[in-house]
Every structure is written in C-alpha cells, then in structure tokens.
Amino acid sequence: MNSRDIIKTIGEQEWLEPVDTALTAVAESTVNAAGQPVKNFLHGTWLGHPLHPAITDVPVGAWSAAAALDVYEALTGDETLAPGADACVKLGLVSAVGAALSGMADWQHTSKNARRVGIVHALLNIAATGFYITSWLQRRNDDREAARVSGFFGFAIVMASAWLGGTLIYDEKVGVDHAQRGAKPKDWTPVLPENELRENEPHKASADGIEIFLVKKNGRVFAIGEKCAHMGGPLSKGKLEGDTIVCPWHGSRFSIRDGAVIDGPATMPQPCFDVRVQNGQIEVRKHQS
C-alpha cells in the first residue's frame, strides 16, 4: 500500500469525525482564544516559513538521541550516558508542547483527507508523548529497563507520526507555497481596460498564464498574485480592508502594495507586479527590484 492509498483510507474513517469536533473545540479555546498575534507566531508568519515542521525537529531529534543512548545502555550495561538519555527525553517533552500548538494552529485550516490525516498524526503524537511521560517517570524512579522499553515504544510511534507528517507536506501540499511564482511577464503586458476596474473592487486578471489580483485604491492600481500562498484561495473574492486584502478561505491578510503577509495562516508573501496605465489599458510586468 503506497502513501496515497493510506491517505485515502484514513480519509474514509468516519470514526474520526467526533475526534475532529473535539480537537476543533480545543483549538478554539487555546490557539484561537489567544488572539491573532499568537496565531501569527504559531503559524510562522514572522519566520517566512511554517513554524511547525521546524519546531518538530526538536522533539524528534531529542527522542532520537535518547533512543540511541538507550540502545547503547541496553547493549553494554554501561549507564555512563544515562543522564544524557534522560535529559533528551525531558527536552523532547518540553518542546513537544510548542510542536503541538503550532501543529494545531495549522491543522484547523486543512480540509478533507488532509484534515483526517492530521487527526491521526495528532493522535499518534499524543500516544508517543504518553509513553515518554511514562518513561520519564520510570527514569526518576530508577527503573531504567522499563523506562527504555517505554521510550522505544514512544520512539516507534513518533517515527510513524513523522511519516504521516511528511505525507501531509509532500502529498497533501499542506504548508507549501501555493502562489504562482513561475514565469512572470517580463515585459509590460495589458491585462484589463482601466475603465473596467472600479475603485475598491477587487478584480481577477491574467498575464502569461499567471493569475493576478488587481485593485484600484485612491486612483492608484495595485497588482499582486491572485492565488493565496497559503492554500491557493482566490484573493479577488476576498475582503478589501484598508490597504490589505483578506483571503476568503482561511483569513490570511496581505498588503496590496507589496504582497507582504500581515496576518497568517499564510507565511509567504504574494508575488508583486509593477503596474502602469498605457492608452487606457492596465499593464503589468514582473516587479523590477
């Protein structure tokens, strides 16, 4: 069974629906209740890259090190490196909190198969964390053999969860850039008669196969990428608020002046185009820095 089959199978599991409801309630009462600045931090808007896959390296790395040190202890009986293993287990538990919160912030904006795969990913992480909490308590009670066994079970589950996390990125395209950043019009290209673009009314146009968001604000025309970098939402269907446009799908907010991310869940800016009006036509080209 390949990854696509596994994703499809998970997506068909109706028993995950009440878990979805429960996790959504948790997200509402924690991540969302904390306010937009906290959500922006957890999404990685400030980083220009999703925070979750970066921060998960800490618990996965720490628990991988713990597993290696535990294997050495089990094979040799030498407990010299045992304090290092214990410290790695503790570091993994502490950093898992940040990984869970950032993952929850991103997960709530997924749908269909990706949403249910994310639920299983979360459940596996919860189970793994439970084993590592048990392992940590056993280490404190100096029951090292039992602690190693608990840790090995936790590590196996973490690896399975990490694999599912990879499928969310590579197969379901969660957290990747959905904006069109390929070939852009290098020369001035007409996209719309100026008299068809009304003040403060977003409009969709295209140039050389690239979809473009146009808007006129105080007589000046602005152009950025139409497809939201977060999940490809149509910005021309969004809400214009001041000098920003809010994506209708998940609420990402971008500056119409330069495409900069103002609010997440998006972490990457929109492509920006130079604009001019020539002979009654709005023309755009690749931004000349």
Structural shape: elongated
- Treating each run of at least 4 consecutive H or I residues as one helix, how many helices? 8
Structural class: alpha+beta
β-sheet strand percentage: 15-25%
Give the biggest sheet. Answer: 4 strands, antiparallel
Total number of distinct structural domains: 2
Strand order within the widest beta sheet: 5-6-7-8
The helix content is 40-55%
CA-based gyration radius: 24 Å
Q: What is the string of helix and strand elements?
A: HHHHHHHHEEEEEEEEEE
Q: Terminal Cα separation, in Å? A: 48 Å
Q: Taking all residues together, what is the mean pLDDT?
A: 94
In total, the number of strands is 10
Keywords:
elongated, Rieske Iron-sulfur Protein, four-stranded antiparallel sheet, three-stranded antiparallel sheet, 2 domains, 289 residues, alpha+beta
Task: Tell me what you see in this structure.
The protein has 289 residues and is of the alpha+beta class. The protein folds into 2 domains: 3-170; 189-286, Rieske Iron-sulfur Protein (3-layer Sandwich). It has 8 helices and 10 strands. Strand 7 (253-255) and strand 8 (261-263) form a beta hairpin. It is elongated and about 85 Å long. The N and C termini lie far apart (48 Å).
